[in-house]
Amino acid sequence: MVQTLKMGLRKYCKEEEQREWDQHLPWVAAGYRFSKQQALKDYSPYYLVFGKEPVLPVDAPLIMVHGRKE
Predict the structure, then answer these.
(1) What is the mean pLDDT of residues 23-31?
(2) Is residue 44, in this structure, part of any structural domain at all?
(3) How far is CA 40 from CA 4, 13, 48, 55, in A?
(4) What residues contact residue 3 under an 8 Å CB cut-off, 6+ apart?
């Protein structure tokens, strides 16, 4: 997991922002938590903890259109 976070931070942080990596860590960690992992039999860590897929802000308009409210 540490290697995955390091790779994500390298991609996310520009050279001049490397000293501010801690500000990007929550976004990289969220990407990891919400992604399906092959080692977890294609479940995301979020799903295994909470028993449901995460509802992201970008998903909210779609939920309202389809009449579902979670």
Answers:
(1) 88
(2) yes
(3) 15, 28, 9, 20
(4) none
